Amino acid sequence: MGISKMLFLFPSTEIPLAQQSVRVKRSAKDQYYLRGWIRHSSREFGKVKYPDNFVDIYTNFDLKMKIWTSEHIFCHPWETVAQASWRKYPNPMNPNVVAIDVLERDVKNGILHSRRLLSSKWVFPGWARKILGSERICYAKENSTVDPTNRIMTLFTQNLTFCHLMSIDERLSYTAHPEDPSKTLLTQEAVVTVRGVPLSSYLEGFLTNTISLNANKGRQAMEWVIGKLNAEVHDLTTTAAKNLHVLTSPPTVQASSLPEC
Amino acid sequence: MNSVKEACSQLKQNYDACFNTWFTEKFLRGDHSTDSCGPFFKVYRECVRKAIQEQNIDLKEIEKEIMGTEEELKPPGSK
After folding, report:
1. Residue A74: enclosing H or E segment and its boundaries?
2. Which chain B residues are Cβ-neighbours of A35 within 8 angstroms?
3. Do B34 and A107 touch (CB under 8 A)?
4. Is the pLDDT reported for residue A34 higher than 60?
């Protein structure tokens, strides 16, 4: 099945994310168009709801891609989430991230653009060590935009080919929830590409679980940071309240469980 | 949070503190004027650039835009 047939099957506004594998025989050129196309389709992301799901795409080369998407709602206003995002690290849920540095930053047309370098330590499980080594520091670049007028924050992370065996691209989008402006919608997409490594199902499972686990940890980390932010505000407010006789009590968020709202 | 090089971490923390305050109190409230953190950023950024060179992290790779351009269609690591 060539790429053009696949485009007919998948209209541009939705991607059927089912558990079946899609076996596609294609040339080297096609598989990169496929990756680019799925990227393009995901720009419709905010308009369609996707459950947690995986799509496996096999090619006739040693190149395997796994695409994972997810959606989550934070019971906090967008401004709180945006602030928390800059203060996300360090946090107890993501100990692998060892350094973050801002390389460029400026405001263009009211939108904040930032470019950062992320350093994280990857530790590979026993069976993967023979191929990948026991651990290494991998670098990723992150481009982000913050639009306070429309209440949209996007982050796009790509790991550099310093760790050339694997490419992980991730796109996050925090937006004010369309139905409830006091909440924030997070949509995530991750594409993992492994090159030249004979992927056993164990390693694939490891990657899958790690991404899913990390996404969950990432959300918990955000809740943890928001909890700290709210506590800071609460402390300030309490101090002011003692003078003004006004009592406020913002909700405290437990890092161990996500709120239902 | 640390910097890619330990020596830059304090400079980073100084800059981050300035940025977080500006972000919350000015930027999110509609004040789009450039932040006053310029001096902090300048000295911190210089430290980071040196560290990146020392550690042989490929800066060109960092600065190149891939998604949304022609580069998106080339396999990673190809010239």
Report:
1. strand A63-74
2. 72
3. yes
4. no
List chain B domain ranges.
6-63
Is A234 contained in some domain? yes
- What DSSP state is assigned to residue A76? S
Residues A106 and A196 in one domain: yes
Instruction: Quote the number of domains for chain A.
Output: 2
> Do residues A58 and A75 share a domain?
no
B7-60 tens-digit pLDDT = 899 999 999 999 999 999 999 998 877 768 999 999 999 999 999 888 877 666
ipTM summary value: 0.81
pLDDT, tens digit, 9 for 90 and up, residues A86-136: 998 888 877 778 899 999 999 999 999 999 998 888 766 565 566 556 777
Among chain A residues, CA nearest to B23: A83
| Cross-chain residue pair B57–A35, CB shorter than 8 Å | no
Cβ pair A101:B34 closer than 8 A: no
- Centroid of chain to Cα B61: 14
Token pair for B75: 């396999």
Contact in structure between A137 and A98 (CB atoms under 8 Å): yes
Question: Are residues A84 and A46 both part of a single domain?
Answer: no
